[in-house]
Queue: 4 jobs
Job 1
Amino acid sequence: MRGLTAALLVTLLALAGALGSTLFLHRAASAALDRVLEERLRGAGETAARLLAGRRPQPAELRALMAANELEGAYVLDAALEVLADATGPAGGRADLLRVDPARVAEAAAGRSSVALAYAVGDHPIATGYFPIPGEDGRPAAVLALEAGQAFLGARAALSRALGVGVGLAALGALALGALALRWTRLEGRRRLDAERAARGDALARMGAMVAHEIRNPLGVIRGSIELVQARSAAALGARDREALADVLGEVERLRRVSEDFLDLAREPRLATGLVDLCVTAADAARGIAAAFPSLGVSLELPALTVAGDAVRLRQVFTNLLLNAAQAGARSVLLRGAAEGASAVVEVRDDGPGVPPELRARLFEAFATGHREGTGLGLAISRRIVERHGGELRHVAGGPGATFVLRLPLAGG
């Protein structure tokens, strides 16, 4: 029963995450597409209106405008809704009110152009733009109406199909992940000879690895798709569109970092061992955290403490401790260190609210967190990294704030 519950939970979480990402990307892409299509139709209309200024347009000109921009219709009206010229029919007579929006024609006759979905023929949506044509005196003398149909809006149908495919793949992926989780939990149930806490931590780590592997592949597809849109549509995208796509890429990068944290719980990556100055490494971490949390002040009182280890991994430890302080609401952090015998000892103390008593016993377990925005992985990963260097990372009770002590063997000690 427990295995079935865990599998169902993993399935629901995976489905919710995948659907959330798919719908978010669809909304962002749809908004960007709407703006691109509107700007494309507006650009064609405003350019044509300037070319037709001060003279009566001919049907041949309107037909050429339709062909050049793959439009469904092009015609010219006056303020009284009289058809002055039409690329697909005779001129003269009143405009068809089922086809024309009198209010928007009046706006265009007053000098204000507009683009919007007007009507549909079956499942065939028609977007119409109304653009003022200047007369010889520069005032609006007529209104150019352009209709964009299937050829112009076909990208919207492709986007809807992509949404359907994305939702289907998300559901299939969630079911597959749930099946894997169910099989895994059943196998794990036969091996519960170790302590309950160790077994639970290992289970969460492996489940996290499976989730991370499932997330990384679609993240790569999403990143590639967004970069392809940027490359192919750079000229058509406005500043808001580029900003929206940049936001999507930022979310993709955030999810990639979270998946890397999950993987770190289940794997033992090789350490690139070398001589590391903890003072330099801590300073690098402090500069990195300052970019994300400029209000957090970090003070360093560290001498040169050289240890044998992986500089990137040890920088990750300091980054996680500083991030933990920032997310807890600390305003300042002090890193103080010294050599004690054959060990380098660094104390990280912040002025935040400290660690709640109910959380201290499981502070270094995976997914244990008291921060709403935290994942509960940073301290668990940090302790694992330090222990692989032959050191120790512990929390020191007492206040004010939170204090962590890092102890590592000195190089040559």
Job 2
Amino acid sequence: MPRLLLVAATTGYQTRSFAGAAKRLGIDITLATDRCHILEDPWRDSAIPVRFEEPEMSAEAIIQASSDGATLDGIVAVADRPTLVAALAAQRLGIPFHPPDAVAACRDKHQSRKLFADAGLPVPENFRVDLGSDPHAAAARSSYPCVLKPLGLSASRGVIRADNAAEFAAAFERIRRILEQPEIRQFHEPWNEAIQVEQYVPGQEFALEGLMTRGHLQVLAIFDKPDPLEGPFFEETIYTTPSRAPHHAQNAIVAAAQRAVRALGLEHGPIHAEMRVNADGVYMLEVAARPIGGLCARALRFQSPGRERLTLEEIVILHAMGPHAIEKPPCELTLSPAASGVMMLPIPRAGVYESVSGIDEALRTNGVDDIVITAKIGQELVPLPEGASYLGFIFASGGDPALVENSLRTAHSRLRFNILASLEVLPL
């Protein structure tokens, strides 16, 4: 039976989604996850223990496991940190994937800006500031308004707009505190040693989901982000597809994404790109060498000749397995005719999650397909820009994207979250 290597976090709903998709396709799966290498299979899943902060050593552990009999036919990485481990392992095993240098460039916003500029894409005025620098001196170098962002974090974590020097200094210190947290410092990643500063780019945001096959980009979907996202923070909430942008704007988005993936050197596997569009053109914000995160993939349903429905996870797996798949990877894919969308439920304030009410009422909202609350009772909630999670997801579908957007907003208004204030722990 063909075998897929899934490089992912030990726990997480996206990991489970891919494992379930592989099972439906009749493909065996080997996990490579961030776990203790000393304990003997603590999760009872026979996973290869890896450490994302040590990609070379982790890739070698995967190679060793493969030589011991766990033959691997394809590789998929979930989330940003696993991508470099997957790229190194794929390169050594001769399995098609994105090159390690390309994956590293995706993780570094400053390097990716350089590559985009070299490719002739519009790039905002930008510079990089070492984490130990004087924020007031850096503020004097910047034009305003500007945006400060960590080089390597995702999901808008630590991204802050500043309209003047005082706001710049405050934002810089806030981001520095985020990057100095033990959960981030433990990875010793070079892109967490500096802050990217770039001119604020006005315009509407979009996202593009695609597959790279031997250097060729196949566009799977373009998402609109209907919220304005003007700052001071940039919390993503609603994605809807198909896009309502004019055809010329969508063509420009696709063309810019094609130039961006070539500039980065991406080769084979899923990509998730984000961009802003205004009268000056398409500004690429980032391209990730992975599929869309969280449970957002549930907003996408595809059709192909001979198959009524395919999930994004199934498409990514079939693509990764190539000729080794039991089922031939589809070469023609179309989105299901209904419009669809997802709302990532924002954390309104810091505290401890206790409960949610109104779910039944929200589920009765016309067009709403499902509501998944991922927050756990007793979980400490941290909103953006410091936080890195959501309360959950709302999924909707309908006749057109505007109706889907309205369904998502209406359902959200019917949910009531009970968040308790955190108790401050005083030193003895």
Job 3
Amino acid sequence: MNKRSSVKEIVSELKSLGRPNCVEGMARYGIRSKGVLGIPMPSITKMAKTIGRDHKLAQELWKTDIFDARLLAALTDDPEQVTEKQMDRWVEGFDSWAICDGVCMHLFNETRYAYNKAFEWTNRDEEFVKRAGFALMASLAVHDKKADDTAFLKFLPIVGRHSTDDRVYVKKAVNWALRQIGKRNLRLNKKAVETAKKIARIDSKSAKWIASDALRELESAAVQSRLKSKERS
């Protein structure tokens, strides 16, 4: 394969790398997207490095409706060329936590619209669209090293507001966003812990799980030690 490979050639190679025996196992972990081939992520990553950034090709790969090809599309698209319209179109096609998180972590978080979409999508009702909003929050907290704390402080009230959503893929994403914000630095850790304690007082099983799981990590000796060390350096 080279950078000039066609979609047809790429799909053919993807199918040759497919592992049918892995598909059932992926389904047990909630990955039931369209056209799952069961390709290990390292193989998809290797293909993406060979192909490089190619916005047009990524659009064609997404249209195949093949799960593995869509992951490859996220890894090869150019975030500078991604439009809001594309993000809204792709998010409508999310049908598992894996494609949702993969696209958000490898592509959408690098676009100029990431913060706006995090606010917008968390207010949507569709399970994987809503998850995408919180997945963006979590990913931005990890990867956007230049962002000011203010950006993440604005996310915390949203985390609290949606902590009663008991759908498994939403509540896990709410928890994920809360934990990642709280592991960014000591100031945000304090605010995230305060948010978690407020959430814990809500009469909701989902909220109580989100809070207890987040507090277990955010108040742990390991996290506190790392953040204090980071503050001193």
Job 4
Amino acid sequence: MITRTDISQATVLSSLIYNDGMPIIAGLEVVKAITDEKTDTHGAVLADVTNKRLYIVFRGTKGATDIKTDLECIQKKTSVAGKECRVHEGFLKAYESVESQINAIPFNEYVGYQIVVCGHSLGGALATLCGASLPVDNNIVVITFGSPRVGNDKLVKAFQDKVVQSYRFVHHNDPVPMVPKINYRHVDTEVRLDDNGNEISYFSVWKRLLYWIKGKGKFNIALFCVEDHFMLKYSKTVSAWNDKG
């Protein structure tokens, strides 16, 4: 099951993966890099031998190719974990471009390990597909930050059948988790945080307006805030939430 250490490691990895090269964290051994230049998909696999954790992390949107991937939101029929579903075409294309590399991970060397799949933004979408698609029976958990929706309700079912536990962190009014909308569903479990790492509920625009009219503090009535999507914001707020225990 997901521990505070898993969340902390996933947060750091999802941030470091944006830098050039392999994320380096004390106590984690580098297993392999994951990359496809054509789709500009990047990730890494690292192992915590002491605590028996295998981390798979994906990079989020960084360049023009990634933006094109994000915008290819027409759903494509596919099979995930043997279940027919519909998935965001761009995310599916990006994941399939590195799927053979993921399947080539020497999982037989990590029998008994819990697999933690993580990522921010586009990386969160790829982590969602990866968690549902891994060809192993290890305990699989998924931790994402600012992930968009990835597919329809059948994909959600395939994900929940495969993944034992997941946290989908959303920072305040981050707009990315609000899309795509039509025939898309989010996977469990949403944890929405304010700037101080406190859990908050999602307010519809009408609830936000009413909250503001009644003078209930300084709640942001904006429909969305682009800055809330930055990984730096997630690093601070999730770390604060994690420290609260």
